Automatic annotation (TrEMBL), chain A:
<dbReference type="GO" id="GO:0005886">
    <property type="term" value="C:plasma membrane"/>
</dbReference>
<keyword id="KW-0472">Membrane</keyword>
<dbReference type="GO" id="GO:0140359">
    <property type="term" value="F:ABC-type transporter activity"/>
</dbReference>
<feature type="transmembrane region" description="Helical">
    <location>
        <begin position="32"/>
        <end position="53"/>
    </location>
</feature>
<feature type="transmembrane region" description="Helical">
    <location>
        <begin position="73"/>
        <end position="101"/>
    </location>
</feature>
<feature type="transmembrane region" description="Helical">
    <location>
        <begin position="122"/>
        <end position="155"/>
    </location>
</feature>
<feature type="transmembrane region" description="Helical">
    <location>
        <begin position="204"/>
        <end position="223"/>
    </location>
</feature>
<keyword id="KW-0812">Transmembrane</keyword>
<feature type="transmembrane region" description="Helical">
    <location>
        <begin position="175"/>
        <end position="197"/>
    </location>
</feature>
From TrEMBL, chain B:
<dbReference type="InterPro" id="IPR052944">
    <property type="entry name" value="Sporulation_related"/>
</dbReference>
<dbReference type="Pfam" id="PF09865">
    <property type="entry name" value="DUF2092"/>
</dbReference>
<dbReference type="InterPro" id="IPR029046">
    <property type="entry name" value="LolA/LolB/LppX"/>
</dbReference>
<keyword id="KW-0449">Lipoprotein</keyword>
<dbReference type="InterPro" id="IPR019207">
    <property type="entry name" value="DUF2092"/>
</dbReference>
<protein>
    <submittedName>
        <fullName>Outer membrane lipoprotein-sorting protein</fullName>
    </submittedName>
</protein>
Amino acid sequence: MSSAETATRRPSAGLALLGSELSVLFRRRRTWAMLAAVALIPILLAVALRLSSGTVEPGEGPPFLDRVTQNGLFVGFTAMVVAIPLFLPLTIGVVAGDTIAGEASLGTLRYLLVSPAGRIRLLLVKYAGAAAFCFVATLTLIVAGAVIGASLFPIGPVTLLSGDVISVPESAGRSVLVACYVSVSLLGLCAIGLFISTLTSVPVGAMAATVVVSVISQILGVLPQLSWLHPWLFTHYWLGFAGLLSQPLDASTFADNALLQGGYILVFGALAYGRFASKDILS
Amino acid sequence: MSRKSLKWLPALVVPAVIAVGVVSVPLQAGAAVDLPDKSANEVLQLVANSTEDSFSGTVSKTANLGLPAGLSTALSGTSGSVPRGTESMKGGATAGDALASGLEFLSGTHEARVFVSGPRNLRVQVKDQLAERKAVSNGTDAWFYDSETNVATHVAIPAEATSEVSEELQDATELATPAQVADRILDKLGDSTDFAVGTDARVAGRTVYELVLTPKATGTLAESVSIAVDSETGLPLQVSVAAAGQADPAIEVGFTSIDFSEPAADLFTFTPGDGVTVEELPLPTERPLDAAHPDLGIGEPVVTGAGWDAIVEVPAASALGELSANPLFEQVTTDVDGGRAFSTALVTVYFADDGRVLAGSVPLDRLQAAAN
């Protein structure tokens, strides 16, 4: 990861840095443990449902739970809804909070910054790594859900929220869309985590702060007195993917969500740059 | 160290640019619209002339009815803002729940996708959080599907009913020219209502005339009704009702986006999938109340006055005794002189102690005076 190539301003140097960042990230045992834990959510859910004898009434428990026993393809959706409020933000908090603060605490940050133009590039590369983790984590969850669902329950055409029925391949496409939606939803939190990570050299502090921010945002999001604030919270659209599970496909919340997350990325990216570029790197 | 403070510049510029964008984009969309002037009569003709009967779009409904606090609390659980999964803590279904879900549409904001093709094909999809309620009708079958309960309700529409309705529709549309329809509306409502054309505006990205209906009677709770009429097609795009002494409209229903292309034909059929509970519902007869509940004992309502400040009086009935036993009834009504009252921004209902019920879009004292 410490690469002397960053001194030169060739674009390939940025790519090389990104490659090494990704390989470090996905070779960490911590990353694998988190991905395994993410995959465990649908597995636990499906196994518990398979072993229990009672039938689930519609509307009982998390959304779609009653559909799982009829169609295993719903395991992924149910697990996604369960994981969105806390578990996924937690893993994102760990990865994003570690980006800069982790290097600072290891004392490797100054080696990464041997070139004066390196700071922007390093921020971008670190952010890209964390964003890649968002996509990998949600895809892991959906794929694990589909696999365990298919092995424990019958699968077949899926009844969407609008009551229309779609085929199994099309429902796989919808699953991937939902995973993309949730990944995009987490990009704003990623940017917040990156900014917090530039504030400190204690990675655990940055991770905890990022998770706390996501929890606070969700608490504000359920207070009816603050309804004017709700559309501006980065957690506002987190569970808003119903349109992707409806016929005809309704991508309007996808676009709104992407716009909102883009705003958060720009604001907190700029803040992270301001802090990181003006900071004295001592470690 | 100005070089260092310069690094913070993007952190200031980016939020500023976003703030400017947030403010200016809606401003641009609502930039002053100037349409050729039309009288109220001409706008009514434009509506009557409208031949647009195939479109799709998103409809948004906002209600600020000032419902009693007890009711708002009872409804907040169904409004979708509460995370799913905590809902089961509310307990099992009760009569109050049924009442609450019926009243749910009277509070808060709802969004629905609407598809219309011709006079018979209709599809409405109400969006909830991670759930949806859908109604489809194509002239021969009507379906209602609720994703939360996974129940589809089917109503078969007999052929005679469809032809009757379409004949009536044809009668209505053929007999009168748009000018006649406009005249008739003005004639019928002209005694009680002032018609005016408000400021031109933009709704769902289209330019609209605003038709404003104001009551001539004083002291009504409803202040005015505004109808936004698409300047091109004559299709009403938004209706909002203003209540006296309230800045926000009491009810506003309107398109947030609309597309005038023909929706796909397969949207108007419905085949329930595996695992969906299908319930058959007989077509409601003309007098469902009399047939189903002959012993309800509700007399004919009496209407006093005409126009906006009319008061409806329902004579004493035993069925109302059951209603008042409902705990939700206690919560949403207030104790007033000589009975209980349910008041909203637009309608007041007065339950007199002798069992009579009076309702109208007037303040409570007018109802009490009418009861004596």
